[in-house]
Amino acid sequence: MSQDADELGQGSARILLIEDNDSNRQLLSDYLNYCGYTVLTLAAGAEFFTAIAQFQPHIVLLDLKLPDIDGYTLLEQLQQRGEEFQVPVIVVSAFAFQSDQRRALSLGARRYLVKPVNLNLLKQAIREELPYSVL
């Protein structure tokens, strides 16, 4: 786990970003930090639930194609974990088929954005999904 902010969640909304592509992860992390968010990044899904428990993100940005586990499985596991792990998930994926989008949304994702993601749309989606207590 790499932490991209000096302190966990102090003064800003916390975003957990799971993206295996190094350049995509760095670009999104830099952009979200620039927007004032505290970002924790993961390159794989293995530490997903540990990161949620420790970092307590307000939003998760999830790629579906990860090296160790697919994002669909993480969405399924997240649904089964109960109240303490209920966090809005925005899928950011290169999978552009409607069937992929429907599947992710049926598994609890709040939004589905196709790569290459429009950064303004991403910022808007995050703002709309953040709990009012964080805004």
**What is the top-level CATH class?**
Alpha Beta
Put simply, the count of helices is 5
Report the strand count.
Answer: 6
Q: What's the main sheet like?
A: 6 strands, mixed
The residue fraction in helices comes out at 25-40%
Strand content: 15-25%
Q: What's the alpha carbon Rg, rounded to whole Å?
A: 13 Å
What is the CATH homologous superfamily assignment? Response regulator
Task: List the uncertain runs.
Answer: 2-10
Q: Output mean pLDDT.
A: 90
Determine the CATH topology. Answer: Rossmann fold
Question: Would you spell out the secondary-structure blueprint of this structure?
Answer:
Elements: E1 2-3, E2 14-18, H1 22-34, E3 38-42, H2 48-55, E4 59-62, H3 71-81, E5 89-93, H4 98-106, E6 111-114, H5 119-129
Modified residues (4-aspartylphosphate): 63
Protein name: Response regulator
Keywords: Phosphoprotein
Characterization of the model:
The chain has 135 residues and is an alpha/beta fold. It has a single domain, classed as Rossmann fold. It is built from five helices and six strands. Strands 1-3-2-4-5-6 form a six-stranded mixed sheet, sandwiched between helices. The relative contact order is 0.17. The N terminus is likely disordered.
Q: What is shown here, in short?
A:
With 135 residues, the protein is α/β, with parallel strands linked by helices. The protein is built from five helices and six strands; from the N terminus they run E-E-H-E-H-E-H-E-H-E-H.
